[in-house]
Amino acid sequence: MPAFRGAGGLPVGLAGAQGLDETSSERAKRYRAHAEEIRSAAKDIKHPESRAALFRLAETYERLSARLESESETLIDKEKAAKR
């Protein structure tokens, strides 16, 4: 598999490539699962700054998930309106 490059030229791993065939809803679920995994791991971290950084990362995944869900709902509403 070719190495895809993301922001700043950093390679995107297999998790990033999963999104190619996913719906917005599936991606939102995956982001929420990532957030939960990160929060769970953060609880065991003793270093306060590292723990806080992980909680911020989890919150970023939650916001991305919410944004995807909102955009998906907006798109569905537009499609329904176009059919009327």
- The N- and C-terminal alpha carbons lie at a distance of 44 Å
Radius of gyration, whole Å: 16 Å
Q: Domains counted in the coordinates: how many?
A: 1
Strand line-up of the largest beta sheet: 1-2
Low-confidence stretches: 1-8, 10-17
Give the rounded overall mean pLDDT: 78
SSE run: EEHHH
Given the structure, what is the number of helices? 3
Strand content is under 5%
**Biggest β-sheet, characterized?**
2 strands, antiparallel
What form results from the Cα inertia axes? elongated
Number of strands: 2
**Helix proportion:** over 70%
Structural class: mainly alpha
Question: How would the blueprint of this fold be written?
Answer:
Elements: E1 4-5, E2 11-12, H1 14-17, H2 24-42, H3 48-83
Antiparallel strand pairs: 1-2
Helix pairs in contact: 2-3
Describe the structure.
The chain has 84 residues and is mainly alpha-helical. The protein has one domain. It is 70% helix and 5% strand. The protein has helices at residues 14-17, 24-42, 48-83; strands spanning 4-5, 11-12. It has a two-stranded antiparallel sheet. A hairpin with a 5-residue loop joins strand 1 (4-5) and strand 2 (11-12). Helix 2 runs antiparallel to helix 3. It is elongated. The protein starts with a strand and ends with a helix. The model is unreliable at 1-8 and 10-17 (pLDDT under 50).
